[in-house]
Design a protein that fits this description.
Elements lengths: L3 H17 L11 H5 L3 E6 L16 H12 L3 E6 L2 H9 L5 E3 L13 E2 L4 E3 L2 E3 L2 E2 L4 H13 L1 H7 L3
Parallel strand pairs: 1-2, 1-3
Antiparallel strand pairs: 3-7, 4-7, 5-6
Length: about 160
């Protein structure tokens, strides 16, 4: 029978080897969070008042206000792209955008092709979400944490 201190010496390197393979979770295979932090956040928007309103200086409304505050929290500048919801979601699916806003609700048929945040607002039975690149979990978690931190003020800020 092996003494306990020898067992510990044997299992310690094995444990450390397994632990080193874990890395940081959640992961972004495309490194989205890493790219946008202190960088540029590419955001697509489609007009859907009062959530998103197209203006001469870029979008306004509840969702653009949230995106601007999120970008500030990660020290990112925003590059806005206006288009149809269909085109924006196709570009998001192809990783050409990081985030899409358009007053989208969780019952969107795009659910299997892209990722949605957890609902951040509910109006009637409609639960509103932001759309992000599928599989970019670190970015998604950072955005959801931000939205959760805003929860106390979201109800007043997001009244349509």
């Amino acid at each position: 029978m092996m003494p306990s201190h020898i067992k510990q010496l044997f299992f310690l390197p094995v444990f450390l080897l397994l632990l080193s393979g874990c890395g940081q979770f959640p992961k972004d295979p495309e490194k989205t969070l890493e790219q946008v932090t202190n960088g540029t956040l590419h955001v697509g928007y489609s007009e859907n008042p009062p959530w998103v309103v197209k203006g001469p200086g870029g979008p306004t409304g509840s969702e653009p206000d949230l995106v601007k505050a999120f970008a500030k929290s990660i020290n990112a500048t925003i590059q806005w792209q206006n288009d149809t919801e269909q085109n924006l979601l196709e570009n998001l699916e192809k990783n050409k955008l990081h985030l899409v806003i358009a007053g989208i609700t969780e019952d969107s048929p795009w659910r299997n092709k892209i990722a949605f945040t957890r609902p951040y607002a509910q109006v009637g039975k409609k639960k509103h979400v932001f759309c992000v690149i599928k599989g970019e979990n670190a970015f998604l978690v950072k955005l959801e944490k931000f939205l959760h931190q805003q929860q106390s003020t979201l109800e007043t800020r997001l009244k349509p």
